């Protein structure tokens, strides 16, 4: 199955989840995230605002704010890059060209390499920690780094967790040279680490 067909199939699958299934998954992910040492040790964490059936991180984001974590949301920048601006409940948001809310320019910004933990949405993932996104390449170009052997992490860079529903797991994804491998995958069933 080519990537476009796979994206369509899995987006339809996640959009078919009922509101109660979505809410349950969100709460479970918040619990699994809070129990992880990467979260507990992190000061600066990047979240995302869910759209198109993506797993909703609102419970996890609220918990992080309550835990006094510095929380950020992605902002689309030129050259397929992401910037990250500080998020607090009630901060001003603007809608980007994809219809996704992002913090406005009056919110403080952090360089991606200063983030401790990044939670990235995904369309599909496999057991080799490969991630298939929406196809824009924003997370790949922003967090490109030298490939790490399985079981090893580049501690000079942000820890990158892909977030999705367990139904989005596939047998194997074709890896491109520019694809960034995840450090972990977070679903309602738990957190799997490299």
TrEMBL record:
PANTHER family registered for this protein in UniProt: 5-FORMYLTETRAHYDROFOLATE CYCLO-LIGASE, ATPASE INHIBITOR/5-FORMYLTETRAHYDROFOLATE CYCLO-LIGASE
Domain of life: Bacteria
Keyword GTP-binding found: no
Residues bound to substrate: 49, 54
Gene3D superfamilies cross-referenced by the UniProt entry: NagB/RpiA/CoA transferase-like
Enzyme Commission number(s) of this protein: 6.3.3.2
Pfam families, A to Z: 5-FTHF_cyc-lig
Record protein name field: 5-formyltetrahydrofolate cyclo-ligase
Gene Ontology process terms (BP): folic acid-containing compound biosynthetic process; tetrahydrofolate interconversion
Cofactor(s), names only, from the UniProt record: Mg(2+)
Catalytic reaction(s) noted: (6S)-5-formyl-5,6,7,8-tetrahydrofolate + ATP = (6R)-5,10-methenyltetrahydrofolate + ADP + phosphate
Binding site for ATP: 3-7, 131-139
InterPro entries: FTHF_cligase (IPR002698), FTHF_cligase-like_sf (IPR024185), NagB/RpiA_transferase-like (IPR037171)
UniProt entry keywords in alphabetical sequence: ATP-binding, Ligase, Magnesium, Metal-binding, Nucleotide-binding
Source organism (scientific name): Saccharophagus degradans
GO molecular function: 5-formyltetrahydrofolate cyclo-ligase activity; ATP binding; metal ion binding
Family statement: Belongs to the 5-formyltetrahydrofolate cyclo-ligase family.
Taxonomic path: Bacteria, Pseudomonadati, Pseudomonadota, Gammaproteobacteria, Cellvibrionales
Class in the EC hierarchy, top level: ligase
């Amino acid at each position: 199955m080519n990537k476009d067909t796979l994206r369509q199939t899995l987006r339809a699958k996640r959009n078919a989840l009922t509101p109660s299934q979505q809410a349950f998954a969100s709460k479970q992910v918040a619990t699994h995230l809070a129990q992880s040492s990467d979260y507990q040790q992190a000061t600066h964490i990047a979240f995302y605002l869910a759209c198109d059936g993506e797993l909703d991180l609102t419970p996890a984001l609220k918990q992080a704010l309550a835990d006094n974590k510095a929380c950020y949301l992605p902002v689309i920048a030129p050259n397929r890059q992401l910037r990250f601006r500080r998020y607090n409940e009630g901060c001003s948001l603007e809608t980007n060209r994809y219809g996704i809310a992002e913090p406005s320019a009056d919110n403080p910004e952090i360089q991606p390499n200063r983030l401790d933990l990044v939670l990235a949405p995904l369309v599909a993932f496999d057991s080799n920690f490969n991630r298939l996104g929406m196809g824009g390449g924003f997370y790949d170009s922003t967090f490109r780094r030298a490939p790490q052997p399985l079981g090893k992490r580049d501690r000079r860079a942000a820890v990158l967790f892909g977030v999705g529903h367990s139904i989005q797991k596939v047998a194997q994804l074709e890896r491109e040279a520019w694809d960034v491998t995840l450090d972990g995958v977070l679903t309602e069933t738990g957190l799997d680490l490299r």
